[in-house]
Structures are given as C-alpha cells and as structure tokens.
Amino acid sequence: MKTKKRSIFAAAALSLVLALGACGGDGAKTPEAPETQGQEQSQDQETKTYKVGITQIAQHASLDNCREGFIQGLAEAGYVEGENLEIIYQNANNDTNIATSIAQQFVAQDVDLMGAIATPSAMACYGAGRDAGIPLIFCAVSDPVAAGLVPEMGQAGDGVTGVSDLIPVEKQLDLVKAMLPEAASIGILYNTSEPNSETQIALYQAAAPDYGVEIVTSGVTAANEIPLAAERLASQVSCIVNLTDNLIVENLPVVLEKASAAEIPVFGSEEEQVKNGCLASEGLDYVALGKQTGAMAAKVLSGVDISTIGSEYVAESKLTINQAVADTLGITVPEELAARAEYTEQ
Q1: Domain assignment of residue 129, yes or no
Q2: pLDDT in tens, 319-345
C-alpha cells in the first residue's frame, strides 16, 4: 500500500485505511485475487473466436486440397470453424496485385493469423502483415528461402513459418525410369515468373545425369503461350514431368492434349494431376501438407511463439497411378510399383 505523505490528519488516514479495506487491499480477500484472475483468463480463452485469413494464389484442386487440409489441421487441434474460429477466405485468381490487395484487407480486418497458400500469396501476406505484427503460416511454398520468407529451412522468419511443398525429385525420376526404362529426355514446362519452378528445375538438372536422362525445359510467361510451347516440347522428349507451377497446373488439360497427340505420358507432381490425366506421380499429398500447416497455425493461436516453430518440408508423399492412361499408352506398370500404388481413373 502506497502512502503519499507520512504526516497527514488522523481523520484522513482513517478514511484511507477503511477505503483500502473495502477494496481488499490488505484484507482477507487478497490471496484469492490471482486465482480469480486466472479463471477469468481461462474463460476468455475458451470463449474467444479467433479470426484467420486464408488466401491462395489460384483456384485449382491441388491448392484447394491445401486449404481443406489446413482447416482440418486447425480443427484437430480444437479450432473449429463456426465454434471458436472465423475463417475469411479469398482467392487471388493468379493475380499478384489481387494477392496484395487481399493481404492488405486481412490487415485492415485485424485477423489473428494469416494462412497463405503458394508463394505469391505468401509473399504478399508477409509484406502486408509483418509491420502489423500479424503472424503468417505459409503452405505450398517450394523454396521459402529464395522467397525471402525464412533464412533457412528448419528456421522461422520474422513472424512467419510454414511448410514447403518441394517435390521429391529423385522419387519422381525413379518412377519415370521404372515405367519408361528407355526414356532419354524429360520435358518440363514452366512459368518464367515462378521462382519455385526454377528451383525445382535445378534439382532435376542436378539429378538427371545419375538417371541417364536429359532435362529439356520450355518457359512461358502467360497462359496463351502454353499450347505452342507444350506442342513443341512434346515433340522433343520421351515424356513430360509436371511441376507444382500454378500457371501450368491451371492449364494442365492443354499440356495433356499436346502430350497425347505426341503419344507420350505426362507425370504429375501430386495426386490431383494424376486424377486429371497424368500417368502417375510419386509426389505430394496436398491434404496432408495442409494438415501439417494447420497444426502449426494452431500452435500460434494457442500462444506458442512463432519464432520457435521452424519451417518444415512436407512429411508425406505417395504413389498414384492412372491405370486408364497407362492402358491407353500401352504402358505396363511394374509389379513393385503396382503393389504399393493408389489407383485413380479420370
């Protein structure tokens, strides 16, 4: 108890003591105050509705699976939409200007956390939310280091962490050689404005000599360039391997059409691409990727310091084969692959 003066009138001193006693300043109720405060904080935490902004750069099945997995990961940790979680979802339609606008809207709406799916959306949210102190969890960013989100894999950045969807390149090459033993060249079509694609191509080029194949690339800058580029590429190679490049994935039917005309297969980088007509993939499970990311987001909402949550690679991959495509191309699936594959048809 603080006193302003030692020398005061007795009546004033008595009044002060009585007033403090009524407030419990030195009385019997004082020990109960911390307990009461803790109960109030617990009740606030139980009743609070957290606001999470989720954005993805484009609308296609792979990124949709990331989003659904992200929401599942939150729910499994106790953050359920409609109960204690409000989700604001926005799609940028593959436009970086829209991605920036969405990120700025999230900041204006004072969300508790941003979840960004794919590199352009992650970079937009990072730029908008960093100074505002809004934590960011990224999902499906192949090279978070090159994107400037984290200093190195295994670490968090400045208010940001998440999960990379880097393709397991050697597993993909093992798959190609198992199904096409005579393959001498592999084509890759990519968006020249997508840094993640350049990272993945470099990995393929580095590994290719060990598999006795040549990597042939063809870069495009817009969707209207894809038909001609895909046609030319398909005429030069034994097969095409598709990346997680959003521009190419959005236009995968065009690539598949040109490859079919050249009677060569396209290998996908994940299950949805195989469902849509690729021959096979030893690649990513985007629902699992989203769940892994959602679990990170839940930790942040629960109060864990984001700087202690290191960035990760996707933990799971799986083999998916489209038997109808294999039959059309006259390709026999090796027994060792058939035994562990999941099969899907168009």
Answers
A1: yes
A2: 999 999 999 999 999 999 999 999 886
Is the pTM higher than 0.85? no
Please tell me what DSSP assigns to residue 266: E
Q: Does 113 lie in the same domain as 69?
A: yes
Amino acid of residue 114: M
Q: Is 230 in contact with 260 (CB distance < 8 Å)?
A: no
Instruction: Quote the tokens at residue 255.
Output: 């690539």
Tell whether 207 and 328 lie within a shared domain. yes
Q: Are both 156 and 206 inside the same structural domain? A: no
What CATH number is associated with residue 177? 3.40.50.2300
Phi then psi dihedrals of residue 320, to 5 deg: -130, 135
Q: What is the pLDDT of residues 196-250, one digit of tens each?
A: 899 999 999 999 999 999 999 999 999 999 999 999 999 999 999 999 898 999 9
114, 136, 170, 328 from 53: Cα distances, Å: 5, 10, 35, 44
Say yes or no to pLDDT of 34 above 60. no
